[in-house]
Design goal:
It contains 11 helices and 11 strands. It has helices spanning 16-33, 57-68, 90-98, 113-120, 136-149, 172-181, 201-209, 220-223, 243-247, 257-263, 297-315, and strands at 37-38, 46-51, 72-77, 103-108, 125-130, 161-165, 188-192, 213-217, 229-232, 269-271, 327-328. The protein is globular, with a radius of gyration of 20 Å. 42% of the residues are buried. The structure holds N-carbamoyl-L-aspartate. N-carbamoyl-L-aspartate binds at residues 57-58, 129, 135, 138, 172-173, 234, 273-274.
């Protein structure tokens, strides 16, 4: 159960009521996220956005979501430029940074690091990705996207068939998303990966224990037939032990337009947490799918803003004040013309 002042470190913390609230508040944030209205409810508040692993969209969307609520953002990127390179502990870094900011987002290459960091913090901490561990806010925006793409009321989130493709071993977005989806009823999961990159056993057990249908295959073609969602992931090259390891699997789990047409049901929604590897030989989600209407990857990234705004508003106790003093937007918005955010 989460409330004002909570950390968000893992999906394990969330109860059904939390998830429903986050999705509902995300919906309320839409006009602000889409620049149709302005709110300054977090004016004066500072987000400390600490990213010690590569990132573009997560770091920026955590920052922009805070800005859209009227708050200021202080970014720290790169381990080598931080005091941790001088041997500072996670605890000390957290205590110091939490004296400067009102809420912290933290990404770090080590599993469990964000939890350790949170122990030193005197303000709420959000896990922005801890190595191969979890990425809970990505899972929440993925769920929000699934709900919208399939046009479902909250109570109808059940009986969804989801194929997860690629690096299921190291992909933290997959770990968090599966934990989250497993809280709903009667889901079907098709887990598609080379054997060496299979989902960790304890997660497979969790899905089965919660009564879901789970099929495990290394065959992309059969695995993506007859599902509602295909969630593709990048090989987490940075977590492999050697270069040879990766070359064996690169390109083996690539979906392109021809395979989509041949094996997926019409309308199957394609998701990817991004970044996708667009280099020739990788292309887990080929650029020839870019015009497909059910390619939802950019709507998915756009959804990161309202969902992260909702999370800040809940943790900082301003959900009910967001609409107070809301103003209209006067500038011309090129985004009005963009279908991806309508
Ligand atoms: C992912 C991550 O960093 O875990 N990206 C993201 O946050 N949207 C996925 C990845 O890096 O492959």
């Amino acid at each position: 159960m989460i409330s004002v002042g909570s950390n968000i470190l893992s999906i394990d913390q969330l109860e059904m009521g939390d998830i429903k609230r986050i999705l509902q508040v995300s919906q309320q944030m839409e006009p602000y996220a889409r620049r149709q209205k302005i709110t300054r409810v977090l004016e004066g508040a500072v987000l400390g956005n600490l990213f010690f692993e590569p990132s573009t969209r997560s770091r920026v969307s955590f920052g922009v979501a805070f800005n859209r609520l009227g708050g200021s953002v202080n970014d720290t990127t790169g381990f080598q430029f931080s005091s941790m390179a001088k041997g500072e502990s996670l605890f000390d870094t957290a205590r110091v940074m939490s004296g400067y900011a009102d809420i912290l987002v933290m990404r770090h290459p080590q599993e469990g690091s964000v939890k350790e960091f949170a122990e030193g913090s005197i303000v709420p901490v959000i896990n922005g990705g801890d190595g191969p561990g979890e990425h809970p806010t990505q899972a929440l925006l993925d769920l929000y996207t699934i709900q919208k793409e399939l046009n479902l009321e909250f109570n109808d989130i059940k009986n969804i068939r989801v194929a997860l493709v690629g690096d299921l071993k190291y992909g933290r977005t997959v770990h968090s998303l599966l934990k989250l989806l497993s809280l709903f009823d009667s889901m079907e999961f098709s887990l598609i990966s080379p054997q060496i990159l299979q989902l960790p056993d304890q997660l497979i057990e969790l899905l089965k224990d919660r009564g879901h249908k789970v099929s495990i295959t290394n065959e992309l073609r059969s695995g993506i037939a007859d599902v509602d969602i295909v969630y593709i992931t990048r090989l987490q090259q940075e977590r492999f032990s050697s270069e040879e390891d990766i070359s064996q699997y690169q390109g083996n789990y690539s979906l392109n337009h021809q395979l989509y047409e041949q094996y997926c049901k019409p309308g199957t929604v394609l998701l990817h947490p991004l970044p996708r590897d667009c280099r020739v030989g990788a292309r887990e989600l080929d650029i020839d799918l870019n015009k497909l209407p059910s390619l939802a990857i950019y709507r998915q990234t756009d959804n990161g803003i309202p969902v992260r705004m909702a999370i800040y508003a809940i943790l900082m106790g301003v959900v009910d004040s967001v609409h107070t003093n809301a103003r209209d937007v006067y500038w011309s918005r090129p985004s009005d013309a963009m279908t991806s955010i309508e």
